[in-house]
Amino acid sequence: MRKDGYQSIDLAPGLDRRELIKLSAAGAGLLLGVPEVWAAGDEKAGSVTRVKTNIGDALKVPRCRWSIPGPFPGRVARVTNPRAMRSGKPDPAVVRNMFRKGLTRLTGKKAGEAFPLFFEKDDVVGIKVNPVGPGLIATRLEVVDAVIEWLERGGIPRKNIVIWDRFDYMLKDAGFTQTRFPGVGIEGLQTMDEAAAEGKRDDSRWLKPDGHHISEAGFDRQTYYFADVEGPKDKGYLNQHVFNGKYSYFGKLLTKKLTKIVNIPVFKNTGNGISMATKNLGYGSICNTGRLHKPLFFNVCTEVLAFPCIRDRLVLNITDGLRAQYEGGPMPVAKFAWEYDTLFFATDPFALDSACHRLMVGERKARGVRVNEHPRYTEYLRYAEQLKLGVTDAKEITVVGA
């Protein structure tokens, strides 16, 4: 692949992740990124300025039988059960039944019969979770339990299952550990030293003597998203983003190990947009992302998913709405969270985000939030349809169980 590329969001100076979690919706600078432009309420907001990327390289690669939008383009299954959450915690048995019902509504088959639509028995399956906001809005462990049980019954051993995210410490904070999931791989694409970012200790735990990040070896220098935007060169940026420059490399976990991906985001907003299926992978699969938010906006969520290491392996998306958040996202803010008791299923991540975006807008309006419905917040969905990555026109999407 030609060297031309991609990146992520800057940590607000002087603020660490835990401090940011405490902020209200007005505090928009976040570790994982809510640049001012994403959350903007300005009705005069213009269209995104295009910068050169290597999306053309991704589009040249032929698709395969597993490529998104998968066997059910434009189809979204929804399952709601008011007993899903009990005293703020998921009921494992109810969640398991919701999962199986969702698969049936999506595929028309029982869970076991649906398995061959997604997997072969020698697959190595990566379960992409969203660990931001543990205990409040992160991917529920019980949903992951249901997925693992289904995979095992289909013949995939636990040793061929990996729960993953971009940041290793976030997985641990959210309860995704070897103790909780014995026999299953737990892998963060990179390390970030929060204490160093806060100035509480030196950089020796993430920065090698030669000036390179200890996580560099975890990224594939041959597979990257290029965007003609430079990344900052300060240590704080490198701590979070591993590389600067104009290249965002995909984790080797995706390019060298996984053969299939199950994506489990959560139902939450990002300003006037959403932080669900496509953002969970678009900003979670690569490094050096801080530089990308402002110039590329949500279009990163489309272009990164066009690369074969995601496009040809992403077979199922499950949006965890057991507890959802309508404002202040993508970081957790307790006063804006509510028990939604809902799971959504799709092979088409863009149809899923399109349907969930409309639901989120309706929820925000119903709760008295001033909503900016400028087309820029859904431009990435229409862009994905142009690239034949999914169905995003509301008239062409079928929501089963709505």
Q: Can you give a write-up of this model?
A:
This protein has 402 residues and is an alpha/beta fold. It has one domain (17-400). Residues 1-46 have low confidence and may be disordered. Helix 4 (92-107) crosses helix 6 (141-153). The strands form 3 sheets. Strands 1, 4, 5, 6, 9, 10, 11, 12, 13 and 14 form a 10-stranded mixed sheet that branches. It has a two-stranded antiparallel sheet with strand order 2-3. Strands 7-8 form a two-stranded antiparallel ribbon. The protein is built from 16 helices and 14 strands. The chain is globular and about 55 Å long. Helices cover 29% and strands 21% of the residues.
Summarize the structure.
The protein has 402 residues and is α/β, with parallel strands linked by helices. The protein contains 16 helices and 14 strands. Strands 1, 4, 5, 6, 9, 10, 11, 12, 13 and 14 form a ten-stranded mixed β-sheet that branches.
SSE order: HHHEEEHHEHEHEHEHEHEEEHHHHEEHHE
- The percent range for strand residues is 15-25%
Number of strands: 14
Number of separate helices: 16
Q: Indicate the low-confidence ranges by residue numbers.
A: 1-46
